[in-house]
Structures are given as C-alpha cells and as structure tokens.
Design goal:
The protein is α/β, with parallel strands linked by helices. The chain contains 21 helices and 18 strands. A seven-stranded parallel beta sheet has the order 3-2-1-4-5-7-10, with helices on both faces. Strands 8-9-11 form a three-stranded mixed beta sheet. The protein has a three-stranded antiparallel beta sheet with strand order 13-14-15. Helix 2 links the parallel strand 2 and strand 3. The protein is globular and about 60 Å long.
Amino acid sequence: MIKIAMTGTSGSMGSEALRQTLELNTAERVRILLTPKKKNDKLAAKLKRRYGARIEIVRGRISDENICRRLVEGADIVVNMAAVIPPHSDNDPRASYECNLRGAIALADAVAAQARQPKLVHISTVAVYGSRTLAHPWGRPGDPILPAVFDSYALHKALAERYIMERGLQNWVILRQTAILYDKIVFSNIRDGLLFHTTLNGPLEWITARDSGYLIRRIAEREAEGENAGFWNRVFDVAGGAQNRRTGYDTFADGFSVMGGSPRAYFTPNDSATRNFHGLWFADADELDTMFGYRRDTVDGFWRELGRKYRIFRLARIVPAALIRRFLFRRLLNDKNSPMRWLKDGDEARAIAAFGSAEAARALPQRWEDYPLADAKAHGAEAAEPLTDCAGSMLRHGYDENKPPEAWTIEDMRQAAKFRGGKCLSEKMGATPYVKLVWQCCEGHTFEAAPYTVLIGGHWCPDCMPQPWEFDRLAKKMPYFAQVWYDSHYSGENMRYSLDEDGTAHAERGGEET
C-alpha cells in the first residue's frame, strides 16, 4: 500500500489521475492540494462524499512551502500536475510564475526537507521545446529547450524542470506532457484568440486526458509492486504515438468535424500564426508505453465519442457555416489574444514573433486554394519511428548518443559543450551523470549543471535562458540552437524580445524598441 500526494487535480489530466488512482486497492490514501477558491469548496465536498477517508484535502497555494510540506509529509509519491496554462498564463504572466515556477520550487524543496523523501513526478510540457516545423518535426529528450517567445507558461515550466533536476532529490522524474484532448476542449478553445496561435503546418501529437491520467495510475501501481526500475531520475515525453500525430490544420479539421464544419468553412488561412507555437512528433513516444502500457485512446475515437456525448454538436450541424463563422470565429479574431488583433492594434512585437513581420502576415494567402497545406503522412507521421529519408531528420545533440549516460566521458562533455558554443571547464567526470560539472557558455557565463541536465534535459546556460528571448543572437553562436531555430527564422532578424509583468510585449531590432 502506498500513500500519494497530488497537485492539479481540478484540471483535465489531474482529475483523471485522481479518479483512476483512487480505483487502486494499492493506494492507501491520496492527499490532494486545492487552492482556496470558492469553486473548490464544492469540489472538496464532492470528493469527500465519494471517497471518504481515502482522500485528504489540503487547502492552500502551491507556492507556499509550508502548505507543500503538509501535502507531502508521509507520502511515497508526489505527483505535481498543477499548472497555469494558456490563455490564462498569457493574460497573467505573474500567475504563471507563481504556480508553474514558484510552486514547483516550493514543492521540490518540501520533498527535499522530508527525512524520508517521497519520489517526485513532475509534469512538464511539450511547450519547452518551442516552435517546430515539418523541417524537423521529430523531437526527443536532449533536444534544445527553446520556449516560444512571450510564452510565460513554457518559460516557467522550463525553469521549473531544471530546478527539480538540479535540486539533488533522491528520486524524481520529468514527464513532458504533449497536447491533451479532453471533454471540454472545443468549448475552451472557442473562447479565446489562442486558437489562432496554432500553426497550420506545424506538427502536433495528441493524447487524451484519460490516457494521461491512466499513466499516473500505472506509475503508482507499479511503484506499489516495486517494479519501477529504470524509471526514476530521467526525462520522458508523454505522447500518443503514431496514430495520434497530426498537423495543426488536421487538428482543426478533426475538431470542427463534430460540428459538421471545417477550417475552410470557418476562417481563412491567413488568420493563423506561421511560427512561434509549439508541438512535436515524438521519436521516443513508445518508451513510456512499453514501461506502463497506458495508451489506449486514439484521436479519431476521441472525436467520435465527443460527438456522441454532447447534443450541442448535433445541433450545430444544422446551423449554416456562414452564421458560425460570423458570430463565433469573427469574434475570436477580434480577441486581444488573436494574431489578427495584434496586427489591428499595431502590436508589432507579437506580430514579428508570430509571422516574422506585420508585412509577412499581410502577405499571406487569404484563400485556402492558395495556401500550401502539408501532408502529415508524407512526412512520416504514421511511421513507427522517424523516416531517415524525410526532410525532418532528428536534431543532433553534439556527442555520441549511442553511449548510455553511465558510459559518458569528459570528452563527450567537451564535444557537447562545443556544439552549444561553449566549453566544459571540468577536468573529469563525477561518480554519476548527476554530479555537477562546470561549464561556460558562448556569452562567457560560467555555471554548474549535471551532465544529465545538459545532454538529456536539453538545458544549457541559466543566465541566457529568457527572458529576454535572445535566440536570434544565440543561434549565431550555437549550432545546437541554429539547427532548429532557422527552420522558422532567418539570420538577419536580430530580435530581442521581452515581456513586462503585466503582459506588455516588446521587441528590439538593432537597439530600437518596437
């Protein structure tokens, strides 16, 4: 019997993880953290009625270390699923900082303070990899951490996972969660201009909230059975596999089909950003599934089930597409978080990040017939592993990746550092890949980091991590960044982006602020 502590259980993944974990006979007790919001009063009462003494509820904020200590005390496993996600994180970067970064730090510190440390499962995100195109759609641990410009959520999640990896905890794991399909996804995504951040030809790999929750259950189940060897102190991607890979356009087509519509019926191709989003097809997608057997749902099956579940979608089928376009999608295009609104308001900084320039945005084709949509299958989306003859080969990491971490040498560290434009200043390896070495980046900053954090985590210089976002400048000195950055940028951009605490965006080119 094991004791589990969880955060984020009011979210789509977290609620599934809680429900499914409480189905286990091996889960003696689940203690959860609920923020002191009024809506959580009803949730707390509902959970106590359903589960009784098997669930304990701590009320407070994850950024409060005293609250975190109460939460994790006596636990065997702590699962951190708490997150402030877009568009909330776009509208309130401070809330993102408090939950996604400060909260993760407080929780890790609380775990470290326990005499008998629980094992920490930290849910990160695919967003830490930043923007990808079909030039390099495949990703895996060890790829560079390049949070999209102005994406507070991705930035704070990246900083949080680095802190956890470097904290010196006895047992931790980072799970980079891919995009989640959940019951209310359509309703959530037709409320905000965030919908149009999705790049039409960008790679996306989906998983259902149900399967992500089942993964947490399986981790707890295997831990109770003592069968999680090879799992701890590693980074994994949580992904849906070959059957769940799409492009952004394909995803719109899937979702709108339950309403009897399509992207072509509801908006025009120039409404969507062409870069600065996030999404991957995961080369390591099967690794976790081999361990835990958690993937059961498909994208196609999810949308069929959703269409049957909600009567409103059947009713939408009888509404003319022109009316839906006029009264729903035109409103979204005027939302303050929509790329078209940025152009209208003269928000040059966000327009540059999303399109390259306002001029490039205005030059995009307005007719679907003129817009070159990509074929996901032609790029190997349904293949069991990346196709070597496709343009989208995997990124290089700068050392002999055939070696397991325990076989790494100081020469591997030097090669990896050189590929990142820097140096490894240490003369020898530590006893394990988790013993910190001394590094220097291309800007001359000296820092300490474990080899695993750098080579598998994909993290590099903490002083160069945004904000401000200066990847244009760094990519010129770092082949590691350049190999993917220039898939959607060009060497002459030279932009420096920053974000005020209130969400005001800035961009500087050649010292002149935009």
